[in-house]
Q: What sequence folds into this?
């Protein structure tokens, strides 16, 4: 009986450990693999031979339950882009030598778009060298921007955090009897899904956020100032949800961008909220504040979505079934069969159809003026934030699974 | 039978509505007052004759329970500094005419240091004109900087948020196998209590925050850089908790201060975290990020401290007893009789001994190097963050009491 290995990569979410728990549970219960190893710091852990044997630790169901609700990556992460096999053969040789030495039959990679690129390359290489190691991708990203799958693990929890927080900011803001503008900057470089989910803070009495700007629509400074001014003429406190990735019609980011780029060539963004704060300060005579939700929107496991955690767990388990069934080069997908009542099934798609593409918020979910979402997005978003996991507290703070030594 | 009126003032907390609920419950159950009114937007609502009759609405215990867990001020707030009675007689006349017209026997003002100044002035004026209106202050401030009382309503919830969030940031940060510094800026202009409470994130496996800087100690840039460098020589990810109010030995704020001041003459701060981020970027060759917890630390009711909410409620009730007993010019206090087991009793103190003074973190709670707190602070802090209120969720987001129309 072969062993298997799992790793996590990319930016953290509140649900990426739920997927890891699903993989572990799948391996332990399906008994298709002998031991389950965890590579530390994603693919770099395999390149450097750093891994843990997870098999015994998670026989204990309490550890597994705790893992399910713990934020970020239990196994650590990396942002390493695997070179093409033509130019970086050495990496591929190292990885498959590791697989051989550890008698690995399947590799599960939990990650976002860039990690799916790694799954794609490794499965192509395996085919080329005739390796029987199955390579399966399990999605995660708070950005919800992977193609084919209905939504991504981690998105629902981040969306729940964003909506709950916007509602709380509404309560915090509405108390003063004077005009004010509050800008909340939300993550999402290319896709506005998470910013769009702020609409869920509108709960019958809260009209916040009053305006929503996504990267899918070209941002026009003058139209924005006009939107804000006309609302201020009618009411006191305006709350604006804005994606970090908003751009003008020429594609230039509305932010105090440093011009730096990360390993994947993405612009390092910061400050769309701050930039708009300064703009309003400069052009409109009104109190203005910006709030950057920062990493809090992806790591606040204490307010994660139970639906998200359960689906993430199931996607981990499904990945094991796919590998055990002889599949490779696939990413687990979630297919929505109904929104009311909410029903899903799990499937898969060739990872080459998913990697390096982006699923944007479609036009029918964005208002014609580009300053709001439409009600059509609600049945899509609403089910994803439902339910609250049972988070235990010790000494007044949440109980999570201690992270192993990662370096 | 006389009526009474209650108002809320200053910055929001997660517990200021629990105190309001306590006042309402006290009035409804003690039957010393006929009707209970709520002035909108603090003392300005009395000056402008804007108030609500709360008597019927909160006969409904479900509304009262919802009020108890709702963030910020149900009745709205203000930042109005009452002038001295010599120069601003008109304000005082308006207020006491309002009291007379509404047949008010007691006024409960829930607020921080500046609101206690108002309580002090109004009770002195009442004495001067021979008014029988009882003026009682009920404290609140996340800053925990009021004298005499053991701790302030709202602090425990904010401290719980800060500690839980620091723990989650630790999980988020520790995943990368590279050197990084994360700076978390925490509210507290003059007193470092809230920043100090970040120590509660150290839970056995989390050493974060590795460094803690309070406004009570003069901040030295070179010592700070040395602290960070020597930690980085030993480990990968350093998390630093820093108060927005840190200053150098000359009392100059370590921040990108605009030099602006608010109505009370306080410097408007922003950016101690950002300033240190830029400093590290400039001087140390390491990845650095700063996170400003911003208003989230005071309005995230979904993770408030049950101990804090219950004590805030009791302090509201106790305020009603004080007024009914014929007292005036007092602030409700909480007296700790034991830390283990945690036991408190409620008392009062003349508000003139509290207003316009600040209780700093004492020297024995701060490390000699000024870059950490001492273990001696733990028995003080720990009981205040215990317990989680039962927050209901509807459609995936928290249920709070809708705010009335405030303007």
A:
């Amino acid at each position: 009986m072969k062993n298997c290995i799992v790793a996590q990569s990319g930016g953290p979410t509140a649900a990426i450990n739920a997927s890891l728990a699903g993989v572990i549970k799948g391996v332990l219960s399906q008994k298709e693999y002998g031991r389950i190893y965890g590579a530390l710091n994603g693919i770099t852990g395999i390149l450097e031979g750093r891994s843990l044997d997870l098999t015994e630790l998670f026989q204990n169901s309490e550890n597994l339950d705790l893992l399910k609700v713990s934020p970020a990556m239990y196994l650590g992460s990396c942002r390493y882009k695997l070179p093409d096999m033509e130019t970086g053969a050495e990496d591929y040789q190292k990885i498959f030598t590791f697989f051989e030495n550890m008698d690995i039959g399947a590799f599960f990679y939990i990650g976002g778009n860039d990690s799916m690129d790694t799954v794609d390359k490794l499965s192509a290489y395996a085919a080329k060298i005739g390796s029987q190691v199955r390579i399966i991708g399990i999605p995660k990203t708070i950005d919800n921007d992977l193609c084919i799958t209905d939504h991504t693990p981690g998105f629902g929890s981040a969306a729940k955090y964003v909506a709950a927080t916007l509602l709380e900011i509404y309560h915090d803001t509405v108390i003063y009897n004077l005009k004010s503008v509050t800008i909340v900057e939300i993550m999402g470089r290319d896709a506005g899904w998470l910013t769009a989910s702020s609409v869920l803070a509108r709960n019958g009495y809260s009209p916040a956020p009053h305006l929503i700007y996504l990267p899918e629509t070209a941002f026009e400074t003058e139209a924005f100032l006009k939107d804000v001014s006309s609302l201020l003429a009618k009411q006191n406190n305006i709350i604006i949800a804005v994606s970090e990735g908003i751009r003008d019609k020429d594609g230039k980011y509305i932010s105090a961008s440093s011009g730096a780029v990360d390993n994947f060539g993405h612009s390092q963004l910061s400050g769309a909220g701050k930039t708009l704060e300064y703009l309003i300060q400069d052009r409109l005579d009104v109190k203005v504040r910006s709030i950057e939700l920062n990493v809090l929107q992806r790591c606040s496991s204490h307010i994660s979505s139970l639906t998200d955690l359960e689906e993430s767990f199931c996607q981990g388990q499904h990945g094991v079934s796919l590998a055990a069934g002889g599949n490779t080069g696939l990413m687990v997908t979630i297919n929505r069969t109904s929104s009311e009542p909410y029903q899903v099934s799990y499937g898969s798609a060739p990872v080459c159809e998913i990697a390096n593409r982006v699923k944007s918020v479609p036009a029918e979910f964005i208002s014609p003026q580009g300053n709001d979402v439409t009600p059509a997005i609600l049945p899509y978003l609403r089910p994803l934030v439902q339910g609250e996991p049972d988070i235990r507290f010790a000494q007044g703070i949440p109980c999570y699974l201690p992270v192993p030594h990662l370096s």
